[in-house]
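Hi U.,

Before I forget, here's the chain from the pilot set. I'm dumping it here mostly so it's searchable later in email.
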Amino acid sequence: MSKTQEQQWINRAALYEILALSFLLTRRELAQALVNGEYAEACAEIASANGLDAQMIAQVVDELAIYQGREADEVFHELRQEYTHLFIGAPRPVISPFAGIWYAEEIGVEPLLFVNKKSMAIERFMRCCGVGQPAKTNDPLDHIGSMLEFLQYLSLLRAEVLVPPEDIEIPANAYEDFYGEHFIDFAHTFAAATIRGSRMPFFAAMARVLGGCKPLGHE
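Structure:
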């Protein structure tokens, strides 16, 4: 592998990492990075390195600038509250973060976690590549954040920064297969819904970045 190819995979891993941080349950560290400007700066640099649209990147930076200079605790609580409203909800979230739920609604069956064809296929795929639920949890693996973390993992494997577990033989095209079969269509649908539904600039901004991910062959 050339140095250029290695760097491309590292850049992809960084993109998936910052997106996963954005769409997993909000952490205080994220709020701190927003208020000191580091998050917007990193997001712009990473998105640019991955060839995302420059006009979209500029819009995202403008949207994230609203958080700079504010109190980190205040921003954290605002983001956590909005995350709960959007992606957890009671009794249902405004926007489901689970690919299987979208799949079930699309084909007209009852949208249950874990047990539909899409969620089970995603779980089998990840487990074949040596990835399962974190210890002491039973969270579905078809959450958008978990899928982004999985693509980060596959990208680092392709960059040869990580090595797979000794007892796991990961298919050569695991990244392409997961990206094309399970991720990209869901990512675009989820991103569009988040842009429409978010009451706060942060989630809409990061959904623009997620929506900027391109289909295979156009990356």
